[in-house]
Amino acid sequence: MKERRKFLHFFDSEEYKEVVPESDEQKKVSPPLFQQPYPEDSPLIDLIPPNDFTIGKAPFLDLVNHRQSRRKYTSEPLTLEELSFLLWSTQGVKQVLRSGSGVKRTVPSAGAKSPLETYLVINRVTGLEPGLYRYISFSHKLLFIKRIDNAEETMGKLSFEQMFVGKAPVIFCWTAVPYRTEWRYTILSHKFIAIDLGIVCQNLYLACEAINLGTVAIGYYEQNKLDELFDLNTDEEFVVLLAPVGRYRKQKKLTEFFKYPKKEVTLVSLKKLEGKYKRKNLVEFIVKNDHLVIKIGEFEEILEPYNEIEFIGEMSARAMRFEFTKEGKPEKVVVLNAEDEEFELECAE
Ligand SMILES: Cc1cc2nc3c(=O)[nH]c(=O)nc-3n(C[C@H](O)[C@H](O)[C@H](O)COP(=O)(O)O)c2cc1C
Questions:
Q1: How far is residue 301's CA from residue 299's CA, in Å, rounded to a whole number?
Q2: Interval between CA 215 and ligand 1 midpoint (Å)
Q3: Which atom of ligand 1 is nearest to the CA of 160?
Q4: Are 71 and 164 in contact (CB under 8 A)?
Q5: Are residues 102 and 238 in the same domain?
Q6: CA of 62 to the centre of ligand 1 (A)
Q7: What is the Å distance from ligand 1's center to 225 Cα?
Q8: Distance between alpha carbon 260 and the CA centroid of its chain, in Å?
Q9: Cα–ligand 1 centroid distance for 69 (angstroms)
Q10: Digit-coded pLDDT (tens) for 275-328
Q11: Whether the CB of 238 sits within 6 Å of ligand 1
Q12: C-alpha to C-alpha distance for 257 and 338, rounded to whole angstroms
């Protein structure tokens, strides 16, 4: 673990000279391509140009204040303008540097190397066939790559069973092409690439907020299976983050789910909640240092007294409600998932 932390370090100048190797740029190797190539004769789909956007004029402070992760989407399609707006906001190209050594975009990137590509799994966008696409940022167009069988279920499963991901009208899938940054920054590149990715994702959050769409960063995904689905040459390029996007539905108020107000809930009766339950996996509730802890395999998380939670996978949940028999024994736990569906965990004993 400690070894991996070092990835976040930079160096003092003395150490820098010793450990950072000569770069390909210094060795006069030609710069890499800053956009993945595609067959010359591929038909490209026009997007709405940024000068023609009629949406996205919300005040900045409102966006910052309202931004939150949103995981529950309506089945309504996105419009082409909305998709164009999101692509422009996250990776729009403003200038290709004349030296050929980088690209200026709507987002900053270490050395203007912009080592990311944007793939889209499109389920519902007005006027577009469902399937896998890539944003051709240099000309602000879309490249259709292929159809994906059963895309909704496939993408949910490939997100560690976070099924809400697959249900979004569009899923942004960013890949990294590390050599673009490595060409100049060698071993310094990987921290920079991660920062570049975070910035792009935050722009997606804010751009969505500006046009009343919702998104959430998805760090849990099946790396090899998704790389394979996208036919990536993983020596060069691989998936690094997903983000489903859709028109969001208001989530249920938790007071409706719990059926009692938040202020009535205290830690006093914690011991009563201890127990083993089952759905696909064994789920244990234990009391540790005056906290109620949920345990699924190696995974543990402290629950708030009101049992508001947030974890991923098959148990993707917003909250849990404990129900008891007349004799006061724990009978079942009702889980409210990210899409406001309720499901029950039965007592395992
Ligand atoms: C790098 C990263 C990875 C994340 N991965 C997931 C994920 O796999 N599933 C999920 O439901 N939320 C995921 N999230 C969303 C966080 O849970 C969320 O941002 C956090 O709980 C704060 O909530 P907020 O965004 O509503 O303020 C991720 C966020 C980031 C930045």
A1: 7
A2: 10
A3: 8
A4: yes
A5: yes
A6: 20
A7: 21
A8: 33
A9: 7
A10: 888 877 788 888 888 888 888 888 888 888 777 776 655 667 788 888 878 877
A11: no
A12: 13
291 and 206 in one domain? no
Q: Count other C-beta atoms under 10 Å from residue 264's C-beta.
A: 9
Last residue of a domain, one of 229, 246, 263: 246
Distance CA 148, CA 145 (A): 10
Same domain, 237 and 259: no
- Kindly state if the Cβ of 220 falls inside 6 Å of ligand 1: yes
**Structural domain span for residue 127:** 2-246
Residues forming a β-bridge with 317: 311, 337
Q: What is the pLDDT of residues 224-235, one digit of tens each?
A: 999 999 999 999
Q: Residue 307 has what pLDDT?
A: 79
DSSP label at 252?
Answer: P
Structural element, H or E, at residue 322: strand 317-324
Question: Which residue of 66, 69, 241, 308 sits with most ligand 1 atoms within 8 Å of its CB, as the best mutation to test the pocket?
Answer: 69
Q: What mean pLDDT is predicted for residues 6-20?
A: 94
Tell which one of 205, 216, 316 to mutate to probe ligand 1, the residue whose CB is within 8 A of the most ligand atoms: 216
Residue with tokens 């708030």: 304
- Is the domain of 206 the same as that of 307? no
Nearest to 166 by CA among 185, 152, 183, 179: 152
Structural domains in the chain (count)? 2
Buried b (16+ CB within 10 A) or exposed e, 25-61: beeeeebbebbbeeeeeeeeeebbebeebebbeeeee
CB 194 less than 6 A from any atom of ligand 1: no
Residue 337 Cβ < 6 Å to ligand 1? no
Nearest alpha-carbon partner for 29 in 100, 96, 95, 117: 100
Residues 182 and 331 in one domain: no
> Which residue puts its alpha carbon closest to atom 1 of ligand 1?
219
